[in-house]
Specification:
By secondary structure, the chain is an alpha/beta fold. The chain has 9 helices and 12 strands. The strands form 3 sheets. Strands 8-9-10-3-11-12 form a 6-stranded mixed sheet, sandwiched between helices. A hairpin with a 5-residue loop joins strand 6 and strand 7. The termini are far apart. About 40% of the residues are buried.
């Protein structure tokens, strides 16, 4: 990983004022030369605390890969990513040299970031309540009674208090996705990542999931969302980022959706709207 250009750590005072996410000149390639595929090509992105960033772009533009890098499900090839002022994947010594963190340390960093995928990935043999309780009891060693109370609270937040004892097969797609959101929230994340959370849903179920996400935004949860729901982006986004070919083509406040400057962004919007 090419990280020689990373500046020394900020002071504690500076860290406390840091954005929630800072992506610095990030590259990601898959495979090995000469057949490597470069998916991210020098991405720079700043996500302020309490903001909602919507990532737009065609399939293959690198949006989902960027989310996976922020959640350390993929290791970046070059650059650096900071979450809440903390460098992901590495620690820096007093001489400014970087050392790869252990798998356990990376898992600890990842536990502060919630991620919701296109597919719900619920355990079919567990009820909604048990799915939400699982990670806090296994990862945070939460007492069962405490985990139960908190899981019920999270299910209530997504409007599913009355479905706590239902199994995934007894829930609609929208309800399953809301359970997945509750499961991520149960870990008390500082940041939530959503990778096209409504793309696998029937059209009539999309609204219930977007409503939960809009409520989270109103509560001040920092979120990065990959979606094609342009109307939702207009209502909720603090900033919109359009990616294509592994680079940020255009970014700005949601007003850019009504007045895109780059021809590629104009073309994209003409198709999705």
């Amino acid at each position: 990983m090419n990280t020689a250009h990373i500046a020394p750590s900020s002071s504690d005072a500076q860290v406390s004022m840091a954005p929630m996410v800072e992506v610095r000149n990030v590259y990601k390639e898959f495979g090995t030369p000469p057949n490597a595929i470069l998916v991210l090509r020098g991405i720079d992105l700043t996500v302020p605390k309490g903001s909602v960033t919507v990532l737009l772009g065609p399939s293959g533009s690198g949006k989902s890969t960027l989310l996976r890098c922020i959640n350390e499900l993929e290791t970046i090839t070059g650059g650096a990513i900071y979450v809440n002022g903390e460098l992901l994947g590495y620690r820096e010594d007093h001489q400014g040299r970087l050392h790869r963190l252990s798998d356990k340390q990376i898992a600890e960093q990842r536990s502060h970031v919630g991620m919701v995928f296109q597919r719900f990935n619920l355990f079919p043999h567990l009820t909604a309540l048990q799915n939400v309780m699982l990670a806090p009891t296994l990862v945070h060693r939460a007492h069962r009674a405490e985990a139960t109370i908190d899981a019920l609270t999270q299910l209530g937040q997504v409007g599913l208090s009355d479905r706590a004892d239902h199994y995934p097969s007894q829930l609609s797609g929208g309800q399953q996705q809301r359970v997945a959101i509750a499961r991520a929230l149960a870990m008390k994340p500082k940041l939530m990542l959503f990778d096209e959370p409504t793309s696998a849903l029937d059209p009539e179920l999309v609204g219930e999931v977007l409503a939960v996400m809009q409520n989270l935004a109103a509560q001040g949860m920092t979120m990065i969302i990959v979606t094609h729901e342009i109307g939702f982006a207009r209502r909720v986004a603090s900033q919109v980022v359009f990616m294509d070919g592994g680079v940020v083509v255009e970014s700005g406040p949601p007003e850019i959706l009504d007045n895109p400057m780059h021809p590629r962004f104009q073309q994209f919007l003409s198709h999705v709207t």
